[in-house]
């Protein structure tokens, strides 16, 4: 099964949306295999967003992402990366469809409440970065009710 990294950003944590977001992924049928609430360091966030280092908004992004705790998660399931991104919605909330997390729960791009891996390769890199201790391997009793 494929794995994806999903992070609830400081605005989502502060607004009390962890449960709502977890519920959506669980309801879809994905399996939670790692989760932690953490307040990342500047260095940790700079490494996470290294591909955006040359962007004008980088310093503000890092300052914001270190302003409070984030909820780091790994979800597992068929097509987890692509489906997870669809569930989050477009990066720009105003372009997100109703029914998506961003379409339903946020307005501004700078407060778009979540991050999701954009490919299997980046998911693997992000999972290793956020969970160096590894993930929890387990078998869900609902697997036969989700997958054929």
From TrEMBL:
Which EC number(s) does UniProt give?
2.7.4.6
Which cofactor(s) does the record list?
Answer: Mg(2+)
Q: Name one GO molecular function term.
A: nucleoside diphosphate kinase activity
On whether Transferase is a keyword of this UniProt record, the answer is yes
In this protein, the active site sits at 115
Spell out the reaction equation it catalyses: a 2'-deoxyribonucleoside 5'-diphosphate + ATP = a 2'-deoxyribonucleoside 5'-triphosphate + ADP
Chain positions recorded as ATP binding sites? 9, 57, 85, 91, 102, 112
Q: Which UniProt keywords apply?
A: ATP-binding, Kinase, Nucleotide-binding, Transferase
Q: What domain of life does the UniProt record list for this protein's source? A: Eukaryota
* Database matches in InterPro entries: NDK-like_dom, Nucleoside_diP_kinase, Nucleoside_diP_kinase_AS
**What are the residue boundaries of the Nucleoside diphosphate kinase-like domain, all occurrences included?**
1-137
Biological process terms from the Gene Ontology for this record are:
CTP biosynthetic process; GTP biosynthetic process; UTP biosynthetic process
Give any Pfam family that matches: NDK
EC class (word): transferase
The portions of this protein that span the membrane are none
PROSITE patterns per UniProt: NDPK, NDPK_LIKE
Instruction: Specify whether ATP-binding is a keyword of the entry.
Output: yes
Q: Which NCBIfam families did the record assign?
A: PRK00668.1 (NF001908)
Family per similarity comment: Belongs to the NDK family.
| Stated name of the protein | Nucleoside diphosphate kinase
- Identify the species of origin: Nitzschia inconspicua
